[in-house]
Amino acid sequence: MALEGPTVALLAIELLALFAAxxxxxxxxxxxxxRVAPILRTLGAIERVVLDLYLGGALLYALAxxxxxxxxxxxxxxxxxxxxxxxxxxxxxxxxxLPRGPRPLVAHLRRRGPELVAxxxxxxxxxxxxxxxxxxxxxxxxDSSVLATYTGLLGLHHSLPLTFAPVATxxxxxxxxxxxxxxxxxxxxxxxxxxxxxxxxxxFLAAFPLAAYAFGLRLTGSRVSAAVLALFTALxxxxxxEMAFGSNDFALAAPLVLILASWCxxxxxxxxxxxxxxxxxxxxxGYAAALNPVGPEWLFVVAAAFLALxxxxxxxxxxxxxxxxTALAAALPWVTPSLYALAxxxxxxxxxxxxxxxxxxxxxxxxxxxxxGPGHPLxxxxxxxxxxxxxxxxxxxxxxxxxxVRARVGDGLARLLLVGGLALxxxxxxxLLARxxxxxxxxxxxxxxxxxxxxxxxxxxxxxxxxPLLWLAxxxxxxxxxxxxxxxxxxxxxxxxxxxxxxVAGVVAALLLLPGAAVTGALLPGQLHASYVSFGNVTSSxxxxxxxxxxxxPSGAAVLxxxxxxxxxxxxxxxxxxxxxxxxxxxxxxxxxxxxxVVDQLIQxxxxxxxxxxxxALGAEYVAVTQANSVLFEPFLAPPLERAGWPVLFAEGDAWxxxxxx
Length: 662
Prior knowledge:
The protein has 27 helices and five strands. By secondary structure, the protein is mainly alpha-helical.
């Protein structure tokens, strides 16, 4: 599928080049770290590339997390250049091992067929995702604008911002690994702040099939099965390929979480993980938590469950506990900035916890995979895939009850689905108890997100739905897995099927993938595009308003913006302005009341003397007005303000900036 428009096509190439440089930097980190962690020396080619991407990102995050103002375009470019140079030198030294001539090259590529299938799946998904953003003005104006604020403050301070100052008051406790990725792209490619999150996320969505390949290879031991899983996640599985509303950080973390999930069964092995491997697991899980905390919380619960299941003696327990403690200790430094900000936030003003959580009615749609309601498209927004995935889920569950099927597909995969599903059920139960007001549980529930846990659950559903295809792939292969599974145990051998039966199994597996292929090629780009536009309908006039404010408003000026307005991206353009809107900083009850009063009246076009008084109490000097940029919120109305004689400082199309009268 060709990308529409030279600008997006060029940007796609630039993004791929930038991420390749990050992979090169990560390879340097991996080669050094592998001296301590044996597991980093045994990675398959695909798994190595994906982990290198995150290891390079982790180094850039560490640079930004240091409170010395080291994160700058020059420093980022220098690090990336160093990584590319080091990798180039290493490849030059090993150039004699590369196939020379067309015949050896073709033979080498044929042997790498499953890996090429995985790479092709990722490339197709990347092209689909990039094609979907053509003509979309911004990411989700409500969520992506917060990321733009963080990124603008990172560029201002050259280190991770711990507070919203000078944009607003309050501490930033949410992990900011995604901020560094966006800041890196901003520093090197200078993408528009309104669009950076929208343009960066597709590359991580496209990395998910690669992570699925690594996941499948580690747990099934078969390169063919791994390729089938990569194809299935690219063509038919729901999340993360259909991420369209916020949750950018979830999408960025998802490939790393999936790979680390495939490491978890090793905690239940005969000896448990080596300390070096536990250190690597913890450090990578900690960095994943810096991107999005929900997945790593689940990983540590799953690892603990496997650890408990594998205990055979007191000595074994002590060894496993040391490994687990090592992993936790390695994870903590990555979330230290968030923990520090959280501690300061509660010290300054202890917050009353809302009940939050998840109610019994929420289980339908967030947990139930068989609901086809339009408001719950987690399984798939496409009816044909909803039906197919539901059927495959049921068939997969029954297949895994049979020992012979588990042996062919991979017992490690079956155990992870069971243990991982139970762990997610336990975490979701915390939300039920929190909604019920059980003492202590609202505190625990405030540290996680039932909505994002449901996304993880649906990823497990997708893998379970792929089980029939994995079984058919194993039958068509007619033998054992081609690599040892996690824990070092060689896979069992199986009697080969007659050639005709093997061919039939392969054909059936291919036919099951056809609906996903048809939907992905014909329907997914349009569905994604419509979703993106509905949450980020930003025009050139809106962008002109943002640029004008950045160039003309004085430092420290206070601008009131509507929820969901494109003007929420203003801190990404001018982080020295104070933006009055609900997603930035902490507001007391009085401020929140004044803000809501003013917003309601400006939306209705009926600002009265009480509203003007509240506007002055907020300290607003300017009011930005844009069109309805998101289906979630209504915009302010400009004509009533113009008729009331408010000074107009900027007016273009549907974008306005008014000065607040005395």
